[in-house]
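Continuing the series of single-chain predictions for the mutant panel. This is the parent chain; the variants come on the following pages.
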Amino acid sequence: MVRCFSRMDELVFVVDDEPDICELIKVNFIKNRFRVKTFFTAESFFSQLSKEIPDLIILDLMLPDMDGVEVCKSLRSKEKFTKIPIIMLTARVEETDKIVGLEVGADDYVTKPFSVRELIARAKAVLRRTYGPQFVNQLKLEERLVLYPDRFEAHLDGKKLDLTTTEFRILELLLKKRGLVLTRENILDYLWGDEKTVVDRTIDVHIRHIREKLGEMGRYIKSVRGVGYKIEED
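Parent structure:
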């Protein structure tokens, strides 16, 4: 099954030591239905990267603790990070700097000052090139289970499923990230971000309800003991 992206909730990591730049990107990307996490240092970025993998990285070339080129090299040297698209963001305008950034694995390069609208357009283009068509209106499993993210509807064997909003979003996330193990913390963060107030075991209850509603198709939702959940096709 080809990995599909719905028109919502792609996770973007922004790594830049200027708080104003991070906030500008975060506010505008959220308006365009992205999820955003910001980091002022390479150290904090790598720390979070060990916990979850974003769909896109926007990376400043000049960081206080590590050069952006070295960050990019490090990402491209590790198999589980090598396919994450990277947009370099920097005040350097020399052509040689752009070439270096692209040669070490960046997918695109934007110089400061920049247009936020252009950055968003480039982000969408990079995501589309990396993962396929960005604006699909459905996610499928075995042609029997179909999710329509823009309508918050799910159908099983042609019949509409009665899912709560939370159940729908969990199932949508699992389908978007099929094959990847998602921790309970990953799922909570996807649902509520920094405003989450529930315990991680709440996810177990939602997963149980989803499986019950999917019937025998619930077998595709695999429990990974001590870690979390994933959708794995036979």
